[in-house]
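Reading a protein record of the kind used here takes little practice once its layout is understood. The fold follows as a row of integers, each naming the local backbone shape at the matching residue. With these conventions in mind, the following record can be read line by line:

_____
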Amino acid sequence: MPDYEPDPESQPISTGPDEFDDPESAPGLPATGLASRAMPRGESQPITLRERLAQPRMTGAIPEILRLAWPVMLATGAVTLAGMIDRAMVGRLGDDTGGAAVPLAAVGIATQFFFLVQSSLFAVGLACVALMARAIGARDPRRAQRAFGASIQVAVAISLGLSIPISLAAPWTFKFLGQVDEVTQTALPYLNLVLASSVLMAVSLVIESGFRANREMRLPMRIAMVVMVFKLTLNGVLIFGYLGFPRLELMGAGLATLISQWVGLFLLVLALRKSDETSPLAVRFRDVITFNRHTWDVVRIAIPGIAERLVMNTAMLSYIWVLGHYYGTLSVAAYTVGIPLLAFTWIPGQAYSQSCATLIGQALGAGEPDEAERIGWQSAALAIVTAVILGSVVAVWRYELAGLLTEDRAVILALGPFMLALALAQPLLQLQFTLGGAHRGAGDTTTPLIAACIGNWVFRVPLAFGFAIIVESDVSWIWYALIFDHLARSVVLIFTFKRGKWKTKRV
């Protein structure tokens, strides 16, 4: 094992002057690590980030980005596929009129509330990556362990702090969003079950982030695959009552989610226990239960990220309010089906974002800010090329793909314009995903928050209200407001990344 020289006081490292007075210096759906592998193989000496990326026949950082990104793509794809099959199973359930709109709308509304919790936990995972990757790059595994434990502590607190109030307020909120009683009564049991799984998800998500911060991308991928197969099997059994089990319908989907979270957490903890005591992943129990400066470091970095998720989720709920009040349950159902389907085209951007965050965090920890910038631009280029290809496929075959998720002809026809708008927005969406990950890997979670505020509340939501209330346009124009949202966010993130103040961000 290499000889590390950890700072006994675990003081934060600085790559430049104190930037806390700069409003940009201050931050779902988990990100990550690179300059030294933390634990090199055998007795060989650790290599630097620049040496790693400059190996023969490598074109800049692209091969290393791809090496880290492909397991994330597969893992995210497994999760997304499970979500799509969830929707497909729910789409086969019928309400009293024989259609799928009510159960689909119920899942769509409940999922937005669950996303509020999930995306807030993503912010904690990103804080975990920023802190651990910087410590790993500086060859200080003990500081990485403390940041790991503090991240678990904060994630559990946030999951409880959000899930309980959301559950209590859900009946009133559903009514406020304009949902009919049938949708509300169908959605509430499902929502309470998935909220109950959030504490398990909190710990799992941080453990995954810790593995990825240490460039252990394949293990979370394998576990995600196992959990996906288990969950989908359980879905069929509990939703439709196979193998002699009672037919629980939407409640069965929620119960399958809760049980599969238990299985995923169990597998991740088993893998974590195999870590060597000098590994950055060898978190100690006292690191999880002790409040210290590392706890506040996680909170400080995560708060703007949580605020960003709140901004986006409230914007989504406002979107649903417009759909429910002006366009009806059918449009909400189309939105519900469209999101998991188009999420497949988001996968590359999410993967590049996570690998980029890992590489940039460790590059800054190793004192190589110029290398970090190069990684960011090359990650963005990869994301755009991939987005154009996938967006084109979805745009051309949007109705055929929608038919995989529901047999309801009315929902399929309503979905077409929405999917076209999202396909057109893909290059912009992927760009802001990746550059947002670059900022977060540096510990700057404030800039993505500012970009989200501008995109959602200066463009997307006002345009949606304007098209619905003032212009009284058809629902297609509500979907096209998405393009302006992602355009605005991309412009902000390009400008701030090029300006480079994130290079001197303290964590």
DSSP finds 16 helices and no strands in the chain. Residues 1-47, 52-59 have pLDDT under 50 and may be disordered.
